[in-house]
Amino acid sequence: MRNFLRIFDKIQRPSLRQGVIFGLALGGIEIVLWLLANFIQDANIQSILGTLALAAFVVLGFLAGQRAAQETGKMGTGVIAGIWTGLIGGILESLIPFIIDLIFLPTIVTNVQQDFKIHPDLYKNIKFSDITASYVFTSIATQLLYTVAVYTLIALLGGAFGGFMGRRRALATQNTYAEYEPDGEENMVEAGEDSAENVLPSPKKSTKSASVAEVDDSIE
Fold first, then answer.
1. 19-44 pLDDT per residue, tens
2. Distance CA 46, CA 52 (A)
3. Domain limits at 39?
């Protein structure tokens, strides 16, 4: 796992690096939840899976924002990390449904045309001849962009809160280091003074004092 994460060490910006890591993880989780929701037909379970899908954007956005803000000490870094997480995760989550819609685009166009005949009131300012493959494709792409934007906003909120918490942790760590630095400096000064005392030679008696003592001895 650590060797895999080292691949992302080349990304210098903490917000982008954490956003890519947690965005890919988020995309994988969303794809699994989407597959489960399509295979399980129970409405209650589908509702739970939908709630988990939204919660995953908040949680992973929070984690990305917290880790990024711890590196820089800035809340804004966490917000940007949350945006990247939501953007990447949202694109991956919408990628499989988008590909499936493209594969079955002719069938979807036919279904929309039949729905137009049954419920024409639902299609305001649209003619039957307007319902073409390009019209349906534009509708699908617009819905995809809207979904990604909503998911990005949700992850942004998680990233903002995570950035706030990460900034507090970074400041607490800096204050802890600042408390220990003065003691370390004083110990270094004291150690330097002790070493200086050991190195300096002891003062010698002056030759003048010695000569005076000899004169006194001779007088006696």
1. 999 999 999 999 999 999 888 888 89
2. 10
3. 2-178
